[in-house]
């Protein structure tokens, strides 16, 4: 007999808007935190011990917040809103002071991607003012690194992922476009390395496992499209995974590379074994589209959580497959 579907261990309410983005900061902290960005422009900093909002940052003039993250090893929060700004916030000693901002010129929903290149120095990639362009700047100097624009008309940039390969000179960037294409860019050479048509519809989301050079993307259709990079950095499409209902907002791989979670337009979170894409669980709690999913970065695997944010203005937290479970 199959086990009954789990319930959330608890929920967070009071965000006041759809939950577009989630980010955990638990590793090496006394107080585990979850950051959320809402469609009403608020960033909530949830204390996971008290299960309440410890701080609320109103930072994007009421515009929808589409991305939040933290700079590792610092008390700096970074966020992007649909006010065309990426903002950096100083959270040290109880503050929430705006330190700096980067103007993107983009009114789309593409979340930026950040990569630490050396201690204290990071690259930030984001969708630019022109429909198809991706801009990369260095932080904290904000000096431009490059602009990536495809030769062919692929439509709007929908999602990006920046990473540093183990071998090779410089960073690479994966981008999903409105026409369903995936492109792999060499940032140093400002050149396209490979391209694949992963979906007939716009690529709504992608995630990439840098350890095994495998990724997966989702769109408005009833399929997930897995793919991998070969040794020549060619994108190789793999067999699609069919879903029960169409539409995926976000995909997230757990830090240990064992689980994949998808945020569904059908109000559900689906959990797969990442290695073989075996369906493991369907999490049902929300009453509207699930917009975001995130796995926690707890040092102790037994404490790991999965969070889901929904258009219903609630965050659900789940404890699943944490110790010794077969997730292959």
Automatic annotation (TrEMBL):
<protein>
    <submittedName>
        <fullName>Uncharacterized protein</fullName>
    </submittedName>
</protein>
<dbReference type="Pfam" id="PF00400">
    <property type="entry name" value="WD40"/>
</dbReference>
<dbReference type="InterPro" id="IPR001680">
    <property type="entry name" value="WD40_rpt"/>
</dbReference>
<feature type="repeat" description="WD">
    <location>
        <begin position="283"/>
        <end position="320"/>
    </location>
</feature>
<keyword id="KW-0853">WD repeat</keyword>
<dbReference type="InterPro" id="IPR036322">
    <property type="entry name" value="WD40_repeat_dom_sf"/>
</dbReference>
<keyword id="KW-0677">Repeat</keyword>
<dbReference type="InterPro" id="IPR015943">
    <property type="entry name" value="WD40/YVTN_repeat-like_dom_sf"/>
</dbReference>
């Amino acid at each position: 007999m199959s086990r009954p579907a789990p319930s959330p261990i608890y929920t967070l309410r009071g965000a006041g808007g759809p939950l577009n983005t989630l980010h955990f900061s638990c590793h090496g902290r006394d107080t585990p935190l979850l950051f959320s960005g809402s469609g009403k422009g608020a960033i909530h900093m949830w204390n996971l011990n008290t299960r309440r909002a410890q701080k609320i940052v109103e930072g994007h003039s009421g515009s929808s917040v589409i991305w939040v993250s933290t700079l590792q090893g610092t008390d700096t929060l970074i966020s992007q809103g649909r006010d065309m700004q990426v903002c950096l916030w100083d959270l040290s000693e109880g503050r929430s002071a705006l330190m700096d901002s980067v103007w993107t010129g983009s009114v789309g929903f593409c979340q930026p991607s950040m990569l630490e290149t050396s201690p204290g120095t990071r690259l930030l990639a984001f969708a630019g003012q022109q429909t198809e362009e991706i801009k990369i700047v260095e932080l904290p100097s904000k000096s431009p690194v490059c602009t990536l624009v495809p030769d062919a008309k692929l439509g709007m940039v929908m999602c990006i992922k920046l990473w540093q390969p183990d071998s090779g000179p410089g960073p690479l960037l994966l981008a999903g476009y409105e026409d369903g294409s995936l492109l792999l860019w060499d940032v140093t050479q400002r050149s396209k390395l490979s391209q694949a048509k992963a979906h007939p519809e716009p690529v709504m989301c992608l995630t990439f496992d840098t350890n095994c050079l495998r990724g997966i993307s989702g769109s408005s259709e009833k399929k997930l499209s897995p793919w991998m990079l070969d040794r020549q950095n060619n994108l190789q499409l793999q067999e699609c995974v069919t879903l029960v209902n169409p539409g995926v907002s976000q995909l997230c791989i757990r830090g240990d590379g064992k689980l994949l979670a998808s945020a569904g337009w059908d109000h559900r979170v689906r959990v797969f074994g990442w290695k073989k894409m075996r369906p493991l669980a369907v999490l049902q709690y929300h009453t509207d589209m699930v917009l975001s999913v995130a796995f926690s970065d707890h040092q102790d695997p037994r404490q790991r959580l999965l969070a889901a944010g929904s258009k219903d203005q609630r965050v659900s937290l789940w404890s699943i497959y944490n110790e010794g479970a077969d997730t292959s």
